[in-house]
């Protein structure tokens, strides 16, 4: 999983029938989570995150399980909104 910030939303009038009724958000990984190569990506949003919120994102097959869409073409899912966190170095 990674931590990111929601920076926008995606609207799609035509999509796979397995994705109908779901909201999609654009997520920017935090600098410390991106390893310098990760760019913004689209994630299905099953919890109602808003632009500007810090979120927890599952990737890969964990995303499909986390959003209860095991047969949908999903590779990233927002599974939590972060209220606060602490990084220890």
Please tell me about this protein's structure.
The structure is a single chain. The chain has a 5-stranded mixed barrel. It has a single domain (2-14, 21-81), classed as EutN/Ccml (OB fold (Dihydrolipoamide Acetyltransferase, E2P)), CATH 2.40.50.220. It is 11% helix and 37% strand. The chain contains 2 helices and 5 strands, in the order E-E-H-E-E-H-E. The mean pLDDT is 84. It is mainly beta and 89 residues long.
Features:
single chain; mainly beta; OB fold (Dihydrolipoamide Acetyltransferase, E2P); 5-stranded mixed beta barrel; globular
Enumerate the strands of the largest sheet in spatial order, edge to edge or round the barrel.
1-2-3-5-4
Low-confidence stretches: none
Elements, N to C (H/E):
EEHEEHE
CATH fold description: OB fold (Dihydrolipoamide Acetyltransferase, E2P)
- Gyration radius, to the nearest Å? 13 Å
Number of helical regions: 2
């Amino acid at each position: 999983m990674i931590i990111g910030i929601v920076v926008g939303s995606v609207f799609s009038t035509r999509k796979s029938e397995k994705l109908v009724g779901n909201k999609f958000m654009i997520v920017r990984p935090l600098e410390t989570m991106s390893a310098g190569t990760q760019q913004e990506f689209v994630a299905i949003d099953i919890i109602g995150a808003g632009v500007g919120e810090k979120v927890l994102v599952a990737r890969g097959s964990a995303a499909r399980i986390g959003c209860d869409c095991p047969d949908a073409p999903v590779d990233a899912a927002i599974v939590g909104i972060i209220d606060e966190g602490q990084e220890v170095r």
